[in-house]
Amino acid sequence: MSKPCIAIAGFQHETNSFSHLSADLPEFEMADSWPPFLRGEAVLTQTRGMNLPIAGFIAAAKAELHPILWCAAEPSGPVTARAFDSICREILDGITQARPDAIYLDLHGAMIADGHPDGEGELLRRIRAQVGPDLPLVISLDLHANVSPELVAHASAITMYRTYPHLDMADAGARAHAALSDLLKGHRPAKAFRQAPYIIPMHAQFTGAAPAGPLYDAVIAYDAPGQWAEFATGFSGGDCPSTGASIIAYAPDQARADEMADALLAQVVVAEDAFDQPLPSPADAVQRAMAMPMGKPVVLADVQDNPGGGGSSDTTGLLRALVAQQAQNAMLGVLYDPQSAATAHKAGVGATLTLGLGGMSGQFDDTPFNVACTVHALSDGEVVYEGAMYGGGIAQIGPTAVLHITQGGADVKVVVSSVRNQCLDLAYFRHIGLTPETARLIAVKSTVHFRADFDPIAQATIPVASPGALGCLLTDVPYKALRKGVRIGPNGPPA
Predict the structure, then answer these.
(1) How far apart are CA 16 and CA 22, in angstroms?
(2) Is this model's pTM higher than 0.90 or not?
């Protein structure tokens, strides 16, 4: 008997409705933290061994695989209509050519495209229009998915990451393969879907602590043959009707699926107060960090200017606070400023410059920070990841410089890049000759992903409310398209 044929593809984008950037085809074609646009056999060979859902699916597969494509773009504003339609069409054409027995898709779940507030739901709608309602179609999603009822209806089964930082992306793909194998054997699980009554801010979703950690323990406790549950904490940067947390449960019968979903939803409701986590201002955060005992570094997380959530990575609020309060032995990374990086490369190591750092996006009344600095180090921006999340992968952040600021008695070294990229690995500092373990303060433009690599060397982590496109103080976010009644943040006002 021949092996079943499974068509596989990946199309990843986390859309921040409040970002001034957009994702067009060039953004999907370039290599950044993840591989460039892959087609055909390259999907199999160039994702092998990576912590990616599609890599986990491929490694688990016992079937004949028909790889179509895999692509991703750095989080930003909406995907352009050109990019969305082009990539969708290529996936549909690949399915036509493969004539598969089943389909697996590696998706994010928080994609918004021009004209389509539910990007993944629209992709699955188009696929179902082509292949019909019965062909097994399994998808894996990011923990930050904004899951719509339509997406759940179109997918035969869904698996999701269960950790933030996302250490189990490949595992989510492997679980998707297990679900698809059951579908190919004729098993059709019942499913139940519930949306939480409030939106969870991104900085509060860390699964290494309560309340998210215990909630995922409860999710995992349901894993058994023929049944499982998933909890999406949601992506608060997306402005659409499905924004927010949700639960999906799969079981042999509807009563059991409903029971699981209702029990988990009740736990999410109880956890609402615990998800309400205030953020200090940059000045207060720096003061707290400097008052802590010498020894291991204190990490300051610039959670709202995280390029991994659509931030510009160039806002200057936290940098200004470090300099104003004369922070000593401090490092900040990664500030996106191609112009300053180019100037530093032209001037060379040791040169003294006066630069307007960052602030180029012009959002949030931010302006370039005019400061005197010395070029401390230069690199080509090839960052070989060392941490658990992306270890072994390579980021390309373009010509990069370390600029040393001693103005006003401060001692701050800033890693400045030419490509927008989230500082989620110690290698962003180490690749250019810095030793973060010896710093007193480390400021990172990241929300939570950095914690997998930075927590082991840190005495404490302080999330900071510096302005940025990934709003974590949700009542300040100018939402317009939320579903009626969902609370804007824990204990927040209804939309």
Answers:
(1) 9
(2) yes
